[in-house]
Structures are given as structure tokens and as C-alpha cells.
What we know:
InterPro entries: CDP-OH_P_trans, CDP-OH_PTrfase_TM_dom, CDP_ALCOHOL_P_TRANSF_CS. By secondary structure, the chain is mostly helical. The protein has helices spanning 3-25, 29-48, 52-76, 81-106, 112-137, 149-162, 165-190. It has seven helices and no strands. Helix 4 packs antiparallel against helix 5.
Amino acid sequence: xTLNDTRRQIGRGMxxxxxxxxxxxxxxxNTVTVVGFLITLVAGYIISTGSLLAGGLVFLFxxxxxxxxxxxxxxxxxxxxxxxILDAALDRLSEAAIFISIIVYYAPEANAWPLLLTGLTLxxxxxxxxxxxxxxxxxxxxxxxxxxxxxxVVVLGIGLIxxxxxxxxxxxxxxxxxTIGQRLASAYRQLGGK
Length: 194
């Protein structure tokens, strides 16, 4: 079993019952996606005001919707290409909103280190996802790597809740750049160096 399979099984186990209940209400997967994004914006605002614990809890709650939208799509049979695109776009915007809120939180300190680290972490997380999208657009497998969105969410959530935000950002940054290397190497191998 691969790491991606393990992630998928955990996510489905967490959302299975609720997705079937929501499917009976008629709620669409895209609605779940948008609601999750809006809750992430609330989390970002809370983080930017300095309430890391509350912001972290709201952020983790919003991240549950990211697993739930796909589960609702499967439960209702409403898996669409547009839904996948909407989900991917709002995932990127959600991550950006959280990292930007952390930059706003650290900005008054006038200390370049947390700002630089957060900016690099934002860039790394976006590039991990971008390489996957470009690889898959070229017919390649693009999911390789040790540190993808679910891991970033968990580590960042723990960092926010515990107040160990700088170590969490450092871990996310380092492992995101390792994942970038893994995905680039995989794409190179799949393309035969062409």
C-alpha cells in the first residue's frame, strides 16, 4: 500500500458516514467546497489577529471540508471535472490565505526571519501542487512525494494550536522542497529525460 493509498483510506474513513447523510440532503459537492473555503478565510482572519489556537482549530475544521467534498461527490454520483478544478483552485487559495494571515501576524515584529520562512513555505506548498497539475496535464503520474497537502494541513494545524508555529513552518518548508525535488525527478524519469 502506498502513502497515497493510506491517505485516501484515512480520509474516506473520516468522512464516510457524514457524506452519506449530506448526500440525502441534496447538498452539492461544490457547495461543500465553497463552504470549506469560506471557513478557511475566517480561520485566516482569526490567525492574523494573533489568536493562533482558535485560528488553528477553525483551520483544521475547515480542512475537514476538503475531504468531505470528494466524499459527497462519490456518495451522490456528482463527480465532475469542474468540481475537481474548483476544489483544486480553492485549495490553493485556502493555503495562500492561511500563509498570508501568518505573514500579517508576524509583520508587526519587523523580524524578517518569520516573514521569509512563511513566504518560502507558501511558495513551496504552491509549487508542490503546481508540479502535480503540470505533470498530470502531460499524462504523467504526479502524486509522488512524502509531503502533500494533507500532511501540510496537519503539521500547520498542530503548529498553530500548540504555538510552535515557526518549527511547523520550517518542517513544512523543508519537506515541501524535498517533495518538489521528488516530483521533478519523477517527471524527468517518466519523460525519459526529454
